[in-house]
Each structure stands twice: as C-alpha cells, then as structure tokens.
Amino acid sequence: EMGCDAEYVDDVHEELVCAVCHLPMLRAVGIHPCAHAFCEGCLVAPHTGVALQECPTCRGAIGSTAPSYAVRNVMNGLLVYCTHTARGCEEKVKRGDLETHAATCGFAEVTCTHAGCGATVLRRDLKAHVAKCEWGLVTCPKRCGERVPRGKLEKHKAEECVKRMVECEKCGTKRKAEASEEHRKRLCPDREVECEVAGCGVMYKRGARAEHMKEHAERHVELLAAENKARAAENKTLLERMAALESAVCTSREWIVDGFSAKRQAKQWIFSGEMVLSHENVAHRYPFLLSMHPNGMIDGGAVAVFFVPRRGKHPHRLEWPMKKKVEMRIVNQKGGND
User: Fold this and answer.
1) Residue ranges of E strands in 152-208
2) Could you give the CA distance from residue 283 to residue 276 in angstroms, rounded to a whole number?
3) What is d(CA 309, CA 323) in angstroms, rounded to the nearest whole number?
4) Among the residues of 24-156, which ranges form H helices?
5) Which of 100, 79, 82 lies closest to 12, judged by CA?
6) Neighbouring residues of 318: CB distance < 8 A, sequence distance ≥ 6
7) Lowest mean pLDDT: which of 26-40, 88-102, 237-251, 262-276?
8) Of 205, 229, 260, 243, nearest in space to 323 by CA
9) For residues 37 and 26, what is the distance between their CA atoms, to the nearest angstrom?
10) pTM for this structure?
11) CA geometry: angle at 145 spanning 139 and 147, to 5°?
C-alpha cells in the first residue's frame, strides 16, 4: 500500500513525502545503510511482489530495512481533513486517528439495518431513516401479535390480520376473521346443511332447522326406528360373537408333580400353588388351585384330580357360580411310575 492521499490541513514537508509514490509516507520504513525512508509498500516491486534490492533514491544496495518510528510518529501527528469532507464533515483530526474518526463519522455512508431495505444513508441520518423505514418491523395495532414490515402493515390489516372484521358471504353479519371459520361451519343461519337424521338427506338453511324438524317429524321417527332396529340387531350379533370368543379362550396352566411314585406309596394329598384362570375380562379372572390324590378316593384306585376355585382378593368382581369350562389333562412325561 502506497502513501496516504488524505487532504492535509497544512503543507507536508518534502522530506516526509515518499520519493516513489510522491505522497506523504504511510508506515515509513528506513533503509540501511543509506538512511533514506519510503512507504513500506513502495519498497516492493508492484508487478512481482519481490522486495527491491536497491534504494530508489541513491541506487545503493539495500542492506536491511526497519520501521522508521520517528517518521511514523511525525506523520500520525499531522492534521488532516475527514475523508467525508465532500459530504459535509468539517472535522480536522490527526492522521493517526483518521480511521477511528471515519468509523463513527456522521457523514459516512451506512446501509439500513432492516432486512430487505438496502438503502444507503449518512450515519447521522440512520436513526431517522430506521424510524420510518418501510422495511422496519412494527406490531399490528389490532393486537393480533404479528410483526410485519411497516410498508406492508396496511395490507396486513386489510387482508391478513386475524383480528380484522370480515363479513359472512351468506348472512352478511360481521365478526373477527379468527372466528369466521367457526361461524361458517357451526353458526351461520343462512348456510345450507344436511339434516343430521340418518337417511333424511334434506338440505336446509341452518336457521330453518326447527321448521324442517317439524315438517319432517313423522319421517324422522320412521328413520330413527329403523336405525334403532338395525343397531339392536348389530349389537345382538356383536354380543354373540363376543360370547363365542370368550368361550373359545383357552388359558393353559401347567402343574409339574415331582416324586409322584413316592407320594403315591405314602398316600399323600398333593396340592398345587394358587393359579389364575386369565381372561381380558376382569370378571373371568378366577383364582384356583388343583388338588390330587395319587390313589384316588380308594386304595389302588385311579388318580383323582380336583379343580378348586378360590375367592381371591376381589371376589365381588367375579361371576358366581363360575360357568367356565375347565379341561384337565394328566400326562406322564417321564414314563414308568414317576
């Protein structure tokens, strides 16, 4: 970057002007051993970006370079006019403070902060522009809760706001837009609806419901009677199917008796732990246990097995007497007498 072309308040001494770009030096760099000073950017070849090997003034070999802080301090202390003088800024600042001033200068051009606007205004006018910008978001005055661009507020109030008043195209009454759908579906007296009695099919205006019901009362009675008869038959069929399904439910329980032959010789009664006859219907969940006498009721007789219903914790929920079919099967799984 070459010298600073800011507009200086006073003439700049020729020794502070770069011999390469002929502008007041920017980030001055001194050359050793000749001690000439130039802009930092002027000591680089513009086309190749390679550092110069000879001093542009005396053509002596460049041994080394270093920042010339003395020159830099002098340059940064010079007064310059603001870069926005053409727009009206009259500030005079030290060159070292020029960037800081420019960042806050009221005559600098800035872009509106509202999305979608893109307008460029002077910084000092930004607040006023933002306050009236067509893209600034404002809250709908009808208290619908929406925030819309200022330029679209009127359209929102007239066409989109749920709090705007709308007229029913059937009955001509007015209400807020948010209530119009319910009015249309359930309340409008001039909107045609179909009679709710199954099979009637007559269309009438909602407001004329009483007249329709009175005029077609006899037919409605016939339709409702037919519907009730059909439902009764359907319910009977469903109940029969449910009863058949309940009867078909088979709940399997297994009771393994170990050491059967020894218990038979000892003529002992054998008892299972408590089990439950399960069913989805709580009224059919009967607790029970099984008892067995290996010799039957007389010595040498067949094995006797008994199904013993129990009261359980909630006997009042059960149907008594129990009417479920219980099938018991004795299986010798090991062979022999055990």
Assistant:
1) 165-167, 174-176, 192-194, 203-205
2) 12
3) 11
4) 69-77, 98-104, 126-132, 153-155
5) 79
6) 283, 284, 285, 286, 312
7) 237-251
8) 243
9) 10
10) 0.48
11) 40
